[in-house]
Amino acid sequence: MTKSYPSRTYVSDVVVIHKTKLSENDLILDLLTPDGAIIRAVAKSARKPGNTFSNRLDLFNVAHVCIARTKNLHIIREAKLCTSFENLRADFFAFSRASLVMELLWRLSFHGQVSPVMWEFVLKTLTLMNNNIFATKELSITAAFKMLSIEGFRPQLSICSHCGNLLSCDLDRTAFSPSEGGILCADCASENNSFEVSLESVCVLRWMISSTYEEILKDINLVHGKVYELAKILKWWVRYHIGCNLLSLQLAIH
């Protein structure tokens, strides 16, 4: 009986989500594939001055690659550029905000298989950010919360996450607790580690998560007015549930 072995090389479309220096000339790339998997591969000589290979594998780029399997890290043999989001690369703050989305995706990949819907989600996010440079700050925060929700880290924003009671509509502010999973009523807030947020920010966040990007762009000022408080919620939510600090967040909200 003849045994069949997988091919030593394979081809795939990828989005470059993270780059790590490997040696003086090489890079390790973390790549999102259409089935939602994150693969790691080495790009040989990608850091050499004037190497056009590295330009095709810049952050956010969509590329068609040929990869060779090895016992350790796979090796990228060829790369053809498919899409380059030039507007994001031309603006420092837009680049930082797109980096926030990629950094969170990279962090989430350490928690298991990324959802198959993530491929289309990431492409749509990058396309809209590239085409709406004026709204990259708001879109990056929105994308982060949508991505967390897709991966099962959606906060409870409708009822008290500790006791399940409805919150009073007479209050302007409420408590938010990452450890409890979302907002808290006044009675539960005194018993749990939490910080204050406005009820308006909670409503905007709930609307962001459940709305389409197109709906959000029509009312982008709703997000703009609450972006700093939303960033604070994002910071502490990711720190507790993912176990990391988002290094891109501070620049992304400027």
Description:
The protein has eleven helices and eight strands. It is of the alpha+beta class and 254 residues long. The strands form two sheets. It has a five-stranded mixed beta barrel with strand order 1-2-3-5-4. Strands 7-6-8 form a three-stranded antiparallel sheet. The chain is elongated and about 60 Å long. Mean pLDDT is 91; it is low at 1-5.
Quick synopsis:
The chain is α+β, with helices and mostly antiparallel strands and about 250 residues long. Helix content is about 40%, strand content about 20%. The relative contact order is 0.11.
Would you count the extended β strands for me? 8
Give the number of helices: 11
Q: How are strands sequenced across the largest beta sheet?
A: 1-2-3-5-4
Q: What percentage of amino acids are in beta strands?
A: 15-25%
Give Rg in angstroms.
Answer: 21 Å
Element string (H = helix, E = strand): EEEHEEHHHHEEHEHHHHH
Task: Give the low-pLDDT segments.
Answer: 1-5
Alpha-beta content class: alpha+beta
Q: pLDDT average, as an integer?
A: 91
| Major pleated sheet | 5 strands, mixed, barrel
The end-to-end span amounts to 64 Å
Global shape: elongated
Proportion of residues in helical segments: 40-55%
